[in-house]
Amino acid sequence: MKTKQLALLTITVFLTCYSFCQPSILSLKEIEKNFIKVNDNLYAYKYETSNELYNLFLSKQTGSDINLLKVDSANWRLPKYSNEPYAQYYHLHPALANYPVVNISYEAAVEFCKWLTECYNNYSDRKYKKVEIRLPSSEEWNMLLSKIESKASKKQTDNNVRPVDKYKNTGKFFNVLENVKEMTNTKGHAKGGDFENGINPSDFDYKYKEASLPFVGFRFFIDIVEK
To answer: How far apart, in Å, are the Cα atoms of 23 and each of 54, 58, 92, 145, 212?
Structure first.
């Protein structure tokens, strides 16, 4: 118990040394550099979607639907987690900007993908004429897994969420099996391992009824519609 309290105190002190995160400018060229080929015209983003990138999306949203897109930080207060510093700071603090966005709904992830698709397809200096950015099917996520599973990382041995570029896999990807489970295009279905449950192949197909969870995020895939 003392160890847990000390860890929470350390996080609190660390976070209070920074001001709250302000969304950065969207760098589509940088995002495009991290499109990694999976199969034929299908690419996947090199990293899990970060707090910083999701915050930028939120900063561009208006209207009554914005409440459906927000992060449910109260999930960090559930008895299983009891992490008040994360409930207050995880989503907004610059110290955690490069951590995976979690506690968002399936619908929110879908809307993020639509927004990023529109941003990219209107970007004058883009490499591809037209793309569709979206959540992957279970089969497509398995294609991604096949790129890295021969040397699957077993590095995550603690129960702490880490930055999106923490665990390097083969094929230039990061955190495919580690850190957070990744949503598919089926609501309530995620793939992979996570900081809470570890890397357990029998748990890679994860079904849940909750609207959002602290150990579920997403990685977007990219269809090259027109080169």
So the answer is: 9, 9, 9, 31, 22
Which among 37-41, 105-109, 166-170 has the top mean pLDDT? 105-109
143-149, long-range: CB < 8 A, 24+ apart: 143/38, 143/39, 143/42, 144/38, 144/44, 144/173, 144/176, 145/176, 145/177, 145/191, 145/192, 145/204, 147/38, 147/171, 147/173, 147/176, 148/173, 148/176, 148/177
What's the pTM value of the predicted model, to 2 decimals? 0.88
Q: What is the pLDDT of residue 6?
A: 42
How far is Cα 104 from Cα 130, in angstroms, rounded to an integer?
27
| Rg for the chain, CA atoms, rounded | 17
Which uninterrupted H or E stretch holds 45? strand 42-45
- Residue 215, classed as helix, strand or coil, is coil
Q: Which of 5-9, 17-21, 41-45, 201-205 has the highest mean pLDDT?
A: 41-45
CATH number of 2-226: 3.90.1580
Q: Three-state DSSP class for 155?
A: coil
What's the distance, Cα to Cα, between the start and end of the chain in Å? 56
**Residue 149 pLDDT:** 66
Nearest Cα to Cα of residue 194 among 185, 183, 186: 183
Domain ranges, ordered by start, for the chain: 2-226
